[in-house]
Amino acid sequence: MRYRLDVNGEMREADVPASTTLLDVLREDFGLTGSHLGCGHGACGACYVLVDSEPAASCTMSVEEAEGRHIVTVEGLAPAGSLHPVQQAFVDGDAMQCGACTTGMVISTVSLLMKNPHPAEGEILDAMSPHLCRCGAYGRVVKAVQSVRGVAL
Amino acid sequence: MSRVANSGWGRPKTPEQVEERIVVGQDGTVWARSGKVEYGQDIRAGFARIVAREMELPVARVQVELGETDRVPWDMGTYGSMSTATDGASLRAAAAYAMALLKERASVRFSVPVPDLAVQDGRIAASDGRSVCYEQLVESGPLEGTVPSGAALEFASGAIDGGSFRVEAADIVTGRTRFPHDVRVPGMLRGHVQHPPVAGMHLDSFDSQTPYAQEGVVQVVHQGDFIGVLARRREQAVSAAQALDPHWSAAPSNPAEPLDVTLHDDPDISQELAAAAEHLTSTYHVPHIAHASILPSAAVADVRPDGADLYVATQRPFGLRDEAAAIVGLRPEQVHVHPQHMSGMYGGGGWDQAALDAVRLSHAGQCPVLVEWTRAEEFALSAHRPVLDAQIAAGLSEDGQIVAWQYHCRTNPHIYGTAAVPPQAVAMTSGRNAIPPYALAHAEILLHVEPGDIRTSAFRSLAAAPNVFVIESFMDELAAMSGQDPIAFRLRHTDDPRLKTVLELVRERSGWNRSPREAGHGMGVACAVYHGTYIAEVARVFVAADGTPHLEQVYAAVDAGRLVHPDGARNQIEGGVQQAASWTLLEETRVEAGRVVTTNWKTYPIATFPDAPEGIDVAFVASDKPSTGIGEPGSVPVAAAVANAVFAASGARVRQLPLRPAFIQKARAQA
Ligand code: FES
Ligand code: FES
To answer: Cα of A23 to ligand 1 centre, how many Å?
Structure first.
């Protein structure tokens, strides 16, 4: 089946079975490997992308569902060679260790701050709660998110 | 003990050649080479700083190459928080020697004695203003020679300047970082293997035809007990592997070969215990836990008749190289291991099973192959942390001094491999930190190691975290029994000034004596000396009426010698604390009939954002002593500090991990 997807502001085509997940299309067909396959059942947050500005697990969304939606992956947050303010905040706060979880967290942070530029700590924890970090960078991530509060995105 | 070993165990350390370590490039870049690998501990930045300091260069001029087997010196693997301590020291020596060689060349060029030369920012200058940059000094030929022993070298002194961030950070946040999962090689297929649910089972039968009916399937590979598939897409490979529908013979009954190691002997221990004024005996249990890397194992192998390239995340590039070469009949130097970015493995990255899957499938299919395990396979098939069961007893004198100490623990192997392991190696791994850091007049410490019901392996700090949970919980029990303050009780049992310093520092930082007692709240302390790093931690918890523990704050005081990369060190300690808090409060691998049954994030929950403590306060002791590891120590005292805080908060002494609300309620009822 042929699907046309709006990814990072570009229309792209994939010829895949209907059951294919959005994540597999991004990673396998479009070479966008910044979204990671951590669990495949919506339980870890490693594969999060923006779907119509909302954070969503791309590992449980089918390519069919994704058609006609506006998809943004971590690669599409800022032009090549530059960093989105949220990405910059994660770098500045060294809010990562191995980085396997980081791109998904960046996505959720961007969405949170677009809707709510001044989230309280509880709201940050809520927004980030789908994301697991085995390296234990939670404290630094919260600080990184707080450091971009109020920055126009 | 069963066949557990590490190939290369105890390989003698030969003097190194500077050209294997430090290369000055034509553009002035200094290449520093190490067989260690990066897996989140940020050693790349640490190594860059060490070399930059010795060679008086901006950090950005140093490029660190890690684990590329064709280009770096042989290395046994990245384990035990030893990268900075051992390889950092080797790099430092090589860099210091390289600097000495450069100065000699400059001295000849200017006819000026070495002591009269000044060095700054990659240039060597004579007092008359003539100067030369390093790259000009290697135009006549690269730096070569045997690095003399440390005593014969002159090292740069003073702190290592900060300022540089994690080298990979910008790639990580933009998704450019390549984990093995992200490697794409022309002509690559996707592979998936069906592993037996219990290691050593034989393949009885399988369906070799149905997979071919599925879309995208290219080949079914069958060699002895090995079966797998090659397909065009990842999801096709996973589904075709399921269609293989293998039947396995019953698990072989492996005769257990236990090993007993005496870590500390005391023929008088029974008498001394009996003669003490007060006694206490307790038993403790620590379950299996999973490494639970966020990304399941993955690897790319490209095996050709005359060579092979492996794109992998491994903690032991050379061990994997040799193993892969043996499987496909190549010489080790024909196999090129290219370490990719690694999803944190915390000591579990030496198993390399996905890499060996890829090697076999690529060899059979004669094409590059990417293998990605599923989340369930990662939980079910990878090795887990050993179980620890301990019986511990002590006798106190009338004035509350420990006069006798007896510790008997049973655990499983922490190292794996193919050859037998000498008992010292077992003592260093399964017995790690079983000997308390206290002055004890009489002590008997015995270790019994036997194969686990599932495969076990190293996990961050090896046996230290489980042993320290038992020892430091028991120290708390002894302090409580004799009515002594837990920190004062520890201080009176050590003469080591560095241990005293971290205990006093954490007492100060945590407000140990100052905070008023509120109902349900409590603080607990624990400490350890881990591979030369001194660490004391205080946990503050709240225990709810229903027994649910909430970790509110952790304070850590650390003496790791001279800090190479202070913010990186802080990040490692914080991460170690957070991860160990998760082990302590939530984690347990459950096993039924030899099979892991906790195979997803629902049945194996780990700490999430809302579970994280409000703060992790890390204080370092300023020191000019040699650098020691920081990757593991942060995790070591956490379980005891939290369990002791639960006791302080609720009166519940829980001697079993994780600290489940049900255990806390039960212990509370008994209190
Ligand atoms: S991979 Fe999608 S949530 Fe885990
Ligand atoms: S940084 Fe390693 S999993 Fe989050």
So the answer is: 9
